[in-house]
Amino acid sequence: MLVDKIWANSADSHTLEPHQLWKDRLPAELAERAPWTVRDEGRETVYVDGQVMRRDPISFSDAIRPPGAEDVTIRLKDLDEQGVWGEVVFPSRGFWIHNMTDPVLARECARVWNEWCAADFASASPRLIPTAILSVLDTGDAVAGLEYAASLGFQTVYMPATPPPDRPYNSEVWEPLWAAAEEAGMPLCFHIGTGMMAQIVAHGPGGAVINYCETLYPGMRTVTHLVASGALDRHPGLKVFVAEAGAAWVPALADRMEEGYRQHDMFVRPKLSRSPREIIHSQVYASFQHDPTALQAVAAMGYANVMWGSDYPHLEGTFPETQKVLHELFDAADPAVRERVTYGAFAELFSVPDRV
Ligand code: MN
If you ran DSSP here, which 8-state letter would residue 18 be given? Predict the structure, then answer.
């Protein structure tokens, strides 16, 4: 039976960088410490700067790498077939840059990734909106990286949901970056599951789901820190986006922050010129893949900054069942909510040509 195809922009997708990317483009001393994977004994092990980051079954690693992950021509065919028009594209191997502790290594790996991405990936189609990687170990490097990314044509930058332990997102050390991002009109995209967080928190009963849910909390912390510290209040033109964490928690977090801000007034510093809810509803965006409650955040909770994301090509996402998921989500939805979640909120952060 033929059904109408639902088209949507995706706020959350990933490209798979060439394995050799850093080996080919960095001096040997840095190249040997760049992200690298080795397959043995049925496992794929990720090394960064001599440390083991992950050791996954090869079956898992292969499942998140359909051919379009690495081949942009196949990717664009997949997008057409799945009904995805524009997409925000995060790294894959590039995420490991945010587990590095050497600022020079992180800065140079980020620079190489951004140059590769602009020249060899984004150039394939204006439908692809990749997020440049910033080094987050040094604010000067982050600001210079953002300005360089803008000069390469990037619309936005990606940052880890968990920052380095000595650089939390409520810290004043970030102020020049918030100012530079606002000035450049570049939204900051925080992708969950990235940065200096433990990859595995729980073993034993429920471990898989517990560990999956653990990736959500740093996204909540990021929003809490940016709002409570006054960073977003001081920079009302700065927009931030938490990718892949779902959306209905955002208005609930706003409730919690309102209560704390009001009821603990005697402790609260700094005072804000707008309420936490007002700041969140005007400057914080969130994306989800499957969650039916995400539409209710828009329809029933007054939180309009909700974007759908396919998370292509990952297991947590909708590929290759995107049309099925989009129909389940939107067939019975208010058309205005569907428009907002598939296009409207996206257009407030990112620019993509109209579908032809
Ligand atoms: Mn994702």
Answer: -
